[in-house]
């Protein structure tokens, strides 16, 4: 039977080809031959529902050709339309028909020369090229090949379809080049609709190439086409244009015309995710037919014109994520047909109107991330059609009103405002609510019990308020759909009811940080599928309960128990953990047993852990951050840690590790931070450290490492912090052996070693990052990542200080306590971004170079305990930020400069310089009594402030009181626990970062 069928189609093909070769151009196929051509076309394609499973088919797809029968007239087949008089096939609609397979260039479909409409959209032709044979459909007016798996270049022959009215080649993997584009625009004079979404048009200039568009164009869709350059503004003025979609072309620039719009026809305008800029012109209000306006994620500025209230037909209005400013136009709230309003991510100010006359059809309202203020008007809680309401990240005040008719609401976000009062009990009327976020406000009181009626609730975030929350089992037993719960930074009351007669199978994320909890909540036992658990910053003491291992036994992947008073964790049994944080507890003994197979982030710093670093760490092939600092670990550094190609942060500082640094750093490693400060590591630095091409922070201070200066580290271009202080390094630093060593170095500390010889002026020459003063930076920026903050111990202004976070602008050099000789090089004066410079306790001679006066950002300068001579350069008096100056124990002579900052330094700055004279010393200059200098600007300001009752003396007194207060508070925190208001202030930002980390965590492999 199969052989007969194959022979049958083979005979049919021969007859068709013979007929076609005899009458190649002018002949018409008979009705039977047309049917045979369609059957043969269908025979070489298979039916596969997956081929039509994607957009835009959905559930509407079905195999139309499956019903085609040879014994029936093809004019009756599904998808086939024939001319009533000639019986020619004039239309073929096989949209979403499950067709799968290659589309050959000699398909028998091309024999149907009378086709006027061909729609093959929503199939999968498996990467086939668009055949040049399509150009022979001279009668074709409508061609749709969208969403059909075609690839390659759009053939030149498409431009020969002179009768085309509509052409849709969108959402394939196609490329159109300039010559073909110009022919399509120039030759297809009847074309009214052109849809090329997702076609590569990167080689086409969008300005000049658009000039030949027909004035009859109604639809132009060039969405996500890689267009770049300036778009021709005249396209907006095409008189018949109804749909213009240029969205998702990030390199496309332009502005909107200020006059002569196609005001009578335009219905849809989409420029979202382009680089269009300028103001929204007032004439936008003249587009009376406009139904959809999508301008999100562009660079528009200025005020939103009040004329936008004239767009009475508008349904979708999205101006989000631009830089619109000024007052929110009240007319926008009176649009009668508005369904979607998105204004988030702008700089809009002012209150919402007290009354509105439109918005009866509003479904989505988002005003988040602006500067809106005032109270929440009552009409917000009476919109009967509203589904999503997002007002987060604004400055709204007052109380949350009573919910009345918002029965359709499924998402409510009022977070990050300044709302007060209690949560209204009427919230229970939001029976369809799925997401509720009231976090980061000033809400008080108890959660209303009526919230348990929100049985569809999936996500509940009440964190960072002043709420008293009773973790009652009855509350949770009704909310069986809860997936995400965040009550952090509130006052949590845990029910002692142990009658666990239900489970919470859908609860995946539970955040109870800083909730004043003193024990593990018993209700956790019913969270059988929990994935994220955060109990950090509480008052939980002692050991973890044995039943804790049953919580999310096979699902838990995020665990944060940091900042408690835990003394023992016997075992961490969960096998899917990627994040574990045990920081700042009282853990003792060896590290708990842990399945590290999926581990990516492990924090256990600031405990009392002992023993060797556990070998299980070597099983963590995905580990990115390891922080075991501030413990009592001993033994050597595991070699597996430096062989990793994934590890980014290795923080083992302040332990008792010994031995040498492993010498097998992988050439493909991704280490960004290595901190071994405060151990007993010895021996030479391994040259394989040079393989750490991503290294930014290297802190090896306070160890027993020896050898000469590691000049070869200068080839690590990203290195920003190098600390080798308090080791046993020795010898001359010498000259660099690379072209531009240490170009990004900002912190260089080699103090307390045995270096000798002259200061390395040739190295100073290449410290580019110390020469460039950061300008125009907005806000403080810190080194590190969302999950780990780089920190450092430094000597700053004479004090040993731990920088728990390192500002990116912090720049310092410390060469103190070595045996350097010779003069200070003039080139030091080029390091203009320096905050601190310390060359003290060496054997430097000669004069202080005047170029030091160029260090205009300098805050402390320590040159004490050297053999410097000559006068103090007068230029130092012009350093505006200099707070600490130490020149004592040298051989300086002459008069001390006066004025500005120098008038604030006392005798200790100049002790044991027998040749110095002048203020503040009592030694006279030129046999005259030392005159008191005129008051400095600072002193004048102090005098003025003292008249108003507040001077610098008060500041110093306050500073001293602050030290005492800090000491007392530290003792209080040690004895009775961490006060909630302090913990909340310190932990809030970290908590937000941990949430972001959780949302963005990748569970895939770490790479090689």
From TrEMBL:
Annotated compartments = Cell membrane
Its primary localisation, in coarse terms, equals membrane
Which InterPro entries does the entry link to?
Leu-rich_rpt (IPR001611), Leu-rich_rpt_typical-subtyp (IPR003591), LRR_dom_sf (IPR032675), RLP23-like (IPR046956)
Q: Where is the signal peptide?
A: 1-28
- Highest taxon in the source lineage: Eukaryota
Regions crossing the membrane: 950-974
Q: How does it sit in the membrane?
A: Single-pass type I membrane protein
Which Pfam families does UniProt cross-reference here?
LRR_1 (PF00560), LRR_6 (PF13516), LRR_8 (PF13855)
Q: Keywords on this record?
A: Cell membrane, Glycoprotein, Leucine-rich repeat, Membrane, Receptor, Repeat, Signal, Transmembrane, Transmembrane helix
Which family, according to the similarity comment? Belongs to the RLP family.
Q: What is this protein called?
A: Leucine-rich repeat-containing N-terminal plant-type domain-containing protein
Q: Which organism is it from?
A: Quercus rubra
């Amino acid at each position: 039977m199969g052989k007969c069928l194959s022979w049958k189609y083979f005979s049919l093909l021969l007859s068709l080809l013979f007929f076609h070769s005899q009458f190649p151009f002018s002949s018409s196929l008979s009705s039977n031959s047309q049917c045979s051509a369609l059957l043969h076309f269908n025979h070489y394609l298979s039916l596969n529902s997956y081929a039509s499973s994607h957009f835009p088919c959905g559930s509407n797809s079905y195999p139309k050709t499956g019903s085609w029968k040879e014994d029936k007239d093809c004019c009756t087949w599904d998808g086939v339309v024939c001319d009533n008089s000639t019986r020619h096939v004039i239309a073929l609609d096989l949209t979403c028909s499950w067709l799968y397979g290659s589309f050959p260039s000699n398909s028998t479909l091309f024999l149907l020369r009378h086709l006027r409409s061909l729609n093959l959209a929503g199939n999968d032709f498996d990467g086939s090229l668009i055949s040049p044979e399509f150009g022979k459909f001279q009668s074709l007016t409508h061609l749709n090949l969208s969403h059909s798996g075609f690839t390659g270049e759009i053939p030149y022959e498409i431009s020969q379809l002179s009768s085309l009215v509509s052409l849709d080649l969108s959402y394939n993997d196609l490329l159109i080049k300039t010559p073909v584009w110009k022919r399509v625009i120039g030759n297809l004079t009847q074309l009214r609709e052109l849809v090329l979404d997702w076609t590569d048009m990167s080689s086409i200039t969008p300005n000049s190439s658009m000039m030949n568009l027909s004035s009859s164009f109604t639809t132009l869709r060039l969405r996500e086409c890689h267009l770049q350059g300036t778009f021709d503004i005249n396209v907006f003025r095409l008189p018949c244009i109804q749909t213009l979609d240029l969205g998702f072309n990030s390199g496309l620039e332009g502005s909107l015309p200020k006059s002569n719009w196609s005001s009578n026809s335009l219905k849809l305008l989409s420029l979202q995710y382009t680089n269009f800029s300028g103001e929204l012109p007032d004439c936008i209000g003249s587009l009376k037919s406009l139904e959809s306006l999508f301008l999100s994620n562009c660079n528009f500025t200025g005020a939103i014109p009040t004329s936008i209230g004239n767009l009475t037909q508008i349904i979708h209005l999205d101006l989000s994520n631009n830089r619109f400013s000024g007052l929110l136009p009240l007319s926008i709230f009176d649009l009668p047909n508005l369904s979607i309003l998105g204004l988030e991510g702008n700089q809009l100010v002012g209150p919402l109107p007290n009354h509105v006359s439109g918005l009866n059809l509003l479904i989505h309202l988002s005003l988040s991330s602006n500067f809106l203020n005032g109270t929440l008007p009552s009409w917000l809680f009476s919109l009967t059609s509203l589904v999503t309401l997002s007002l987060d990240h604004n400055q709204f005040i007052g109380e949350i009103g009573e919910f009345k008719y918002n029965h359709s609401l499924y998402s409510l976000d009022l977070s990050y405002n300044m709302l007060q009062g209690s949560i209204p009990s009427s919230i229970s009327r939001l029976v369809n609510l799925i997401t509720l976020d009231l976090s980061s406000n000033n809400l008080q009181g108890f959660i209303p019990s009526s919230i348990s009626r929100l049985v569809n609730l999936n996500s509940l975030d009440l964190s960072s308020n002043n709420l008293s929350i009773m973790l009652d089992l009855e509350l949770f037993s009704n909310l069986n759909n809860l997936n995400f719960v965040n009550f952090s930074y509130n006052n949590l009351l845990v029910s002692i009811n142990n009658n666990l007669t239900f489970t919470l199978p859908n609860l995946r994320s539970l955040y109870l940080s800083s909730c004043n909890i003193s024990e593990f909540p018993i209700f956790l036992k019913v969270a059988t599928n929990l994935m994220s658990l955060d109990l950090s910053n509480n008052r939980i003491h002692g050991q973890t309960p044995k039943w804790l291992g049953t919580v999310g036994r096979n699902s838990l992947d995020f665990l944060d128990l940091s900042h408690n008073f835990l003394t023992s964790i016997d075992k961490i049994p969960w096998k899917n953990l990627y994040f574990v944080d045990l920081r700042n507890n009282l853990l003792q003994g060896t590290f708990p047993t842990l399945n590290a197979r999926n581990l990516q982030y492990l924090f256990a710093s600031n405990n009392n852990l002992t023993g060797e670093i556990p070998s299980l760490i070597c099983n963590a092939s995905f580990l990115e951050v390891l922080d075991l600092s501030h413990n009592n670990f001993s033994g050597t550094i595991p070699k597996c840690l430096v062989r990793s190609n994934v590890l980014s942060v290795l923080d083992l500082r302040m332990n008792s590790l010994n031995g040498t640094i492993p010498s097998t750093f992988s050439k493909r490693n991704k280490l960004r931070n290595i901190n071994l400060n405060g151990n007993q590591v010895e021996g030479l630095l391994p040259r394989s450290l040079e393989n750490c091409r991503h290294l930014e922070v290297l802190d090896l201070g306070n160890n027993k490492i020896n050898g000469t200066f590691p000049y070869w580290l200068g080839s690590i271009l990203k290195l920003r912090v190098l600390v080798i202080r308090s080791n046993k390094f020795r010898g001359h630093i010498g000259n660099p052996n690379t072209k531009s060593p240490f170009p990004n170095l900002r912190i260089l500390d080699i103090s307390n070693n045995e270096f000798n010889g002259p200061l390395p002026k040739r190295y100073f020459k290449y410290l580019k990052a110390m020469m460039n003063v950061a300008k125009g930076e907005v806000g403080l920026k810190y080194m590190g990542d969302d999950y780990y903050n780089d920190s450092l111990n430094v000597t700053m202004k004479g004090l040993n200080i731990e920088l728990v976070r390192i500002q990116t602008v912090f720049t310092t050099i410390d060469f103190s306590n070595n045996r350097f000789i010779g003069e200070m090089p003039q080139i030091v004066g080029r390091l203009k971004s320096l905050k601190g410079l310390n060359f003290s306790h060496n054997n430097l001679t000669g004069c202080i170079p005047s170029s030091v006066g160029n260090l205009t950002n300098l805050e402390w300068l320590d040159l004490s305990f050297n053999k410097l001579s000559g006068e103090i350069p007068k230029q130092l008096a012009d350093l505006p930020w200099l707070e600490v100056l130490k020149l004592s124990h040298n051989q300086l002579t002459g008069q001390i400069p006066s004025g500005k900052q120098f008038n604030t330094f006392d005798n200790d700055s100049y002790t044991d310089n027998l040749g110095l004279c002048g203020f503040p010393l009592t030694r006279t200059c030129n046999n005259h009594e030392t005159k008191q200098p005129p008051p400095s600007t600072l002193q004048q300001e102090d005098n003025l402030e003292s008249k108003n009752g507040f001077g610098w003396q008060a500041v110093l007194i306050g500073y001293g009181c602050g030290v005492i207060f800090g000491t007392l508070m530290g003792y209080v925190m040690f004895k009775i626990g961490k006060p909630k208001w302090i913990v909340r202030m310190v932990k809030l930002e970290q908590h937000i970062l941990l949430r972001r980390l959780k949302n963005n965590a990748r569970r895939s492999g770490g790479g090689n």
